[in-house]
Amino acid sequence: MEHPYGYIKDNKVYLKGFLGKEDREIGEVKEDEASTISYFEARFEQIKDKVAKLKSDIEENQNKGSFLMKLIHLRDSLYESDALGDFIPLIETLNEQEAFLNEIIQVNRAKNLEVKKALILEAEAKRDDTDWKPTAEFFKELKMRWIKTGPVEKELHEELENEFNDSIQTFFENRRHFYEGLALQAEENIKVYEALVVQAREAHDLPDAKMAFDISKRIQKEWKEAGKVPAEKRQPLWDEFSKLNNRIFSRYKRTLNPGPSMHPREVLRKIEGMVDELKKMAHQPTGPAITQRAKAIQEDWKKLPAHKPKEANLPARSYQFFMDIIFEKAFLEKLAHGKHPGFEAMPLQEQNQIKSGILKDLLHRDQGELDTMQNNSDNFRVQTPDFQMMMRKKLSGLKRKVDVKNYILKQLSPRI
Hints:
mainly alpha
C-alpha cells in the first residue's frame, strides 16, 4: 500500500527518506493496512502540534533564548520519529525559529557583555576600599547583580568571571588580613595590660607608700597609652587594676594626712584588742555577722597611724593571720553551698568532710605556688633591695595562705 510519505511492504511500515535520509522502517501492520496508516498519520499530527506549541511559546514568552535547547532536541527527534507525514516543513519551521533565537541570543549576549564589563569596573573601583562593613555589603549586592545577568559568549565567560572575582577576592582577603592583624595586636595589647596589673599588685604590696604611689602614677599613664583590646577581655583587668591603684592612693593619702597623733602604747593596746577579738571570731562558725564585724575592724585598722611601734610587729602579723582565717572560712562556706545543693541540711560531720575536701584542693594549689616561688626566687637576675623586699613580701603572703588553710583544716578535723 502506497502513501505520499511512506509505504507498506512485507507487512512492514516504511517512511520515505527525506533531506538525504534513506527510507526507514517505523512499524508493522497490526490489524489492517488502513488502520495502521491512520495510526502513524495521527502520530505525525501530534508531532505537528508539538512544533506549533513550541513556536507559540517562543512568540509569547519574553525569555525566548531559554527555548533554544528544547527546539534543538525536538528537531533532532523528528529524524527518528515513527510517524507518517511531511517532516520537511516542520524542520524548516524549527530552523527558522533557531535562526530567530540565535539572533536574539547574540543581541542579549552583547548586552550582557556590556553589563558585566560595567560590573567589573564597579568591583575594581571598590577592591581596595577599607570601609569594611559597607563595602562588604556592596560586594554582596554586586555579586547578586552579576549572577542575575545573563550569559556571554563562551570564549569570554572564563576571562570575565576571573576579572570580576579577582576584585571581590582582593577586597575580602584585605579585610581578612586586617582583622587578623587586629586580633594579633589585641593579644599583644592584652599582655601589656596583664603586665601592668602585675606591677600594680607588686606596688600595692610595697611597704613604702611613696614608692608605691610613684609606681602607680607611672603605670596608670602606661595603661592610658596601651592599645585597644576587646572590652570583655579588658574589663576584668581594669577592675583589678583600678581597685589596686585606688588602695595605693588611699594609703599614700593617709601618710600625708596621718590624723590625730596617738601614743605608741595606745596603738599597741588597740592592735592587741583587735587581735583578741579576731582570734575569738576565727574560732566561731562563720556567718554574715562575723564577716561584717571583721570588715568593721578593718576600717578601724585603717585609722591607726601608718608608722606603728616596733612592739606591734608580732600582733600585727596575728591580726592579718586571724583576719585571713575569717574571710577564708566565709569563702569556703560559699564554695561548699555552691557545689553541694542542700548543704545546709546536711549533718555537721558531713559538712566538715565536704569543706575539708575543698580546702585540701585549695591548699594543694597554694602549696605548689609557694614551692615554685621559693625554688625560683634565687634565679632572678634583678636583686635590688626593693626587689628583695617585694619577693619576701610575696613569699610571706603565700606562706600565710598555706598556714591559714592548715589552721582551718585542723579546726574541721574530728576531735578524738
